[in-house]
Give the backbone structure.
Amino acid sequence: MPRAATTSDVFNAIAEPQRRRILSLLREREHTVGAISHSLGLAQPTTSKHLKVLKEVGLVDVETHGRQRLYRLDARGLREVHEWTGGFERFWEGTFDRLETYARDLERKEREDGTTPHSPRP
Amino acid sequence: MEQRRTALDREIVLERLIEAPRRFVFEAFTKPEHLSNWWGPDGFTTTTTAFDFRAGGEWIFTMHGPDGTDYPNWMRWEEIVPPERIVATHGDRPDDPEAFTSVFTFSEEAGATRITLRTIFPSVEARDRAVSEYHAVEGGQQTLGRLAAFAIGLSKEV
């Protein structure tokens, strides 16, 4: 199977360092292609190509003001990446599941034995 | 806009309702023979080398991942208030510069226990690194770690 096209998902789109620089720049405020090219020292066609990819995966949108096209960050598209990488939360989710099972075991044991495993009842 | 550098950027707060009375949930933290039964996500086991459950005491242990990877762990209990609160410093060794503070609070809620874990990292970078590393521990994948830190930074703006 051919690998996923660059334009098909957010992960591929932000894997490219220049596109990450563009997103960081757009974080401050919206810019024209010309301004982005100038700020990052890229040729305008290169910038346009990157913006097209970012637009296709929904990370930027464009607003037309007269003859000016302003590109703006839409960071909602990054939520997918954020969630995918939520390892910390998943780590603790699994741990808390096990803690719950174990605490209930302790409670059951006390009921069965009629004794407290550690500290005496208040 | 420059990203704010407040403590909030260095924190992760998780909350969970556990269907068991508070003293048992707290009890589960107090002995290595308890902890070995539940610490770590599914598929992980824990071997304890040293354990001293009092303020200033340490817990030195190794977590064994499902793929056979060993993760050295070190914890110092900073504050223990049974059955309400535990504060610990957690790293991979005693002088770990990336060690973070974990604050567990336990509150009673109609026979169940609400556990809150507030983790405070020494820097935003350490926080982002921990997020990707926990992902690595959990999923065994590291390649997107840098992207992860980047995406988390950006998505905070939403």
